[in-house]
Amino acid sequence: MTPIRLALVGLGKIARDQHLPAIAADPRFELVAIVSRNADLDGVAHFTDLTALLASDVMVDAVALCTPPQPRHALAHMALAAGKHVMLEKPPGATLSEVEDLRQTAAARSLTLQATWHSRFATGVEPARAWLAERTVRAVRINWKEDVRVWHPGQDWIWEAGGLGVFDPAINALSIVTRILPLPFFLSRGVLHVPENRQSPIQAELDFRDAGGAPIRAELDFLQTGPQSWDIEVDTDGGALKLTNGGAKLWIDGQLMHEGPDREYPGLYDEFARLIADGASDVDVAPLRHVADAFLLSERVVAPPFIE
Ligand code: NAP
Where is the Gfo/Idh/MocA-like oxidoreductase N-terminal domain (predicted)? Predict the structure, then answer.
């Protein structure tokens, strides 16, 4: 078996915490290059921009883009134009239109494009989907509350236009609910709290309804100190389901039914290898579309300045 020669673009927090270990543990991939303006890795070819890598004699089959969303489209387009398969970190782009452009470009060139949603690989998510498929949803509550100072120190891009603010983590919740809920759902009302010195929301409250009329309430907070919440509760006609720890634990009527080791990024690379082998792509924009809807429809409230 010839490994897929992979280049990783953007050597920041997620690349170091998750991508490098997942790649190292998967024999179907060989890390052949790092593209980073500031950082390199012992024993791996290093380039300060993607153009230089693509012009070099380093042979690359696929590229994993681990940058913030704002520069993602230009990088992905460049890689696809050079005939490389592309993995996109979440969110897959800064706008829906640019992701659609990438989808079409990949299809036209018979290349694999993978819009990753790592939280969908959390242990409880697929069992939750199967359990809910046989029940009627009555109500959903999403609580996604974390301390931005702990989880995103120094990440100024999160606060810039296109950085999504509190939706950077909350899109993970949306990636889970778009996967597990049996019916589509639609935003009816939202409030975004935007610090007066920033471009992106620090808190949000969203009210959706699913196609059967069930209310879905999402409370998102980037200022949560103390215990952090990455929880989704679903009331149904046949009991109450709860996903906690970002989907890692599944509870039914208060009983823990599923938990397991963190396999989210190994799962993503497994899927990437399969997609490449099958000549397929996976580009589901549903979570990003709900974020776009929130930015389209919500009221805006000016919040106190955010000082790191
Ligand atoms: P980060 O720590 O700020 O790293 C991003 C890296 O991208 C930087 O190290 C930078 O590397 C590179 N980069 C290229 N163009 C950039 C630009 N215009 N502005 C800023 N950086 C640029 O961010 P991260 O937490 O790894 O997040 C990256 C992506 O992964 C985001 O889309 C995020 O939503 C997603 N993600 C993050 C987490 C997490 O827990 N942090 C979890 C899952 C997914 P160089 O300066 O070396 O070029």
Answer: 4-114
d(CA 82, CA 84): 6
- Look at ligand 1, atom 1, and give the residue with the nearest C-alpha: 12
Measured CA to CA, the distance from residue 137 to residue 214 in angstroms comes to 7
pLDDT at 264: 98
> What does the buried/exposed string (b/e) look like for 82-102 if buried means 16 or more CB atoms within 10 Å of the residue's CB?
bebbbbbbbbbbbeeebbebb
Per DSSP, the three-state class of 208 is strand
When pLDDT is cut at 50, 70 and 90, the band that residue 1 belongs to is confident
Cis peptide before 91 (omega within 30 of 0): yes
- Summarize pLDDT for 159-208 with one digit per residue, the tens: 999 999 999 999 999 999 999 999 999 999 999 999 999 999 999 999 99
pLDDT in tens, 64-104: 999 999 999 999 999 999 999 999 999 999 999 999 999 99
Residue type, 49: D
Q: Return the amino acid letter for 103.
A: R
Q: Does CATH number 3.30.360.10 belong to domain 119-260+292-303?
A: yes
CB count, 10 Å around CB of 38?
7
| All CATH 3.40.50.720 domain ranges in the chain, comma separated | 4-115
| Residues designated as active site | 90
38 CB under 6 A from ligand 1? yes
CATH class of segment(s) 4-115: alpha beta
Nearest to 96 by CA among 295, 280, 270: 295
Atom of ligand 1 nearest to the CA of 37: 48
Which residue intervals of the chain bear CATH 3.30.360.10? 119-260+292-303
